[in-house]
Amino acid sequence: MNNQALSSKKAQIFQISTQLFRKKSYTGTSMQDIAGAMGIKPASLYNHINSKQEILIELLLHGAGLFVDGMNEIRASQLTDLQKLERLIALHLRITVDNTDLMALIAVEWRHLEGDGMREYLKLRNAYENDFRIILKDAMDAGQIHQMDVEIAFFSILTTLKWFYSWYDKHSNLSLIDLEEYLKKLLLGGLKIS
Amino acid sequence: MNNQALSSKKAQIFQISTQLFRKKSYTGTSMQDIAGAMGIKPASLYNHINSKQEILIELLLHGAGLFVDGMNEIRASQLTDLQKLERLIALHLRITVDNTDLMALIAVEWRHLEGDGMREYLKLRNAYENDFRIILKDAMDAGQIHQMDVEIAFFSILTTLKWFYSWYDKHSNLSLIDLEEYLKKLLLGGLKIS
DNA sequence: GTCTATATTTTGATAGAC
DNA sequence: GTCTATCAAAATATAGAC
Q: Which one, A41, A91, A157, B125, has the greatest CB density within 10 A?
């Protein structure tokens, strides 16, 4: 569910916070909850982090980084735009499988970010979404997928990918290959020009 | 966004709480927030409701009731199972359009229910989902849609419908008829036997 | 039906001993 | 690095005057 290293206490705080924030929400999780799950006292947490908000920021910026890095790799490639779209779907799938709890924070808990943390997060998210939109539009302009309203196609695909984690929870027994084929067919099947 | 009557103060509390719970989450919304949005003091709220948790319970049981009532109407009809599936999609769409904020609570905030409230809510939700699953299975057995894993098809359809409200937010300009056709094609297009 | 005043808990966070 | 002790603020909720 979550591959974050357990080596340091700080990493352990992040891992447990991810689980708790998903289960009880950011505002519904107390420092007491986090410390209790680690077997220490709340005050001890502050030797590793400066505030509860800082935990949320680090988790979400880490998550956003996974998407931005994957996007940059795909953009730098020589693939066709349609192939890039397929890679983006595979990217979402891989990140979701490796960080299911974190995806819940990306889908729901980001709204509890404050100030600069929120601004920085939204900057990364907007950059990613814009890159995604451009690839979709280019694939359309190149005649690789059917001509249609870019915004509708874009949000339809992204919404499904965004909430896929809640679906994956119940089907983590399926193989990665099957899931990838299923998602590609679901999201691009009606779009591709055969 | 929310058609709840404003006639009584109690109804006004429900309406404002729905908006705030969606925007700031249940645990992130204080009685102060609700009272402040109404222009009264927090203590005054308790003349109309008994607790913050009671607000959440009433909102979610009302929401669950919309689905259960719609399901009962559809089940009582003489439609084919495939037609019933199409009616269920239209039901979700109509409830989402009329109660967009409430759908966010159904998708996310239900986890903050406690005790009997949680048990009663889950009972209604499970009953609805079971009825939905049975109709899907019957449509498959009757040869109206392609044979496939019922659970995968079921969760795939329900997940999309569940998160549709976050998509609808950005496309509330589209006509109901277009949205219904789009959703039916998206969810049943690959399934229907032509 | 709303208010002020208040009780009680819990919250995030800090100081300082060990 | 963890603890105890503590703080200040905010939370839900109640009592009782008006």
A: A157
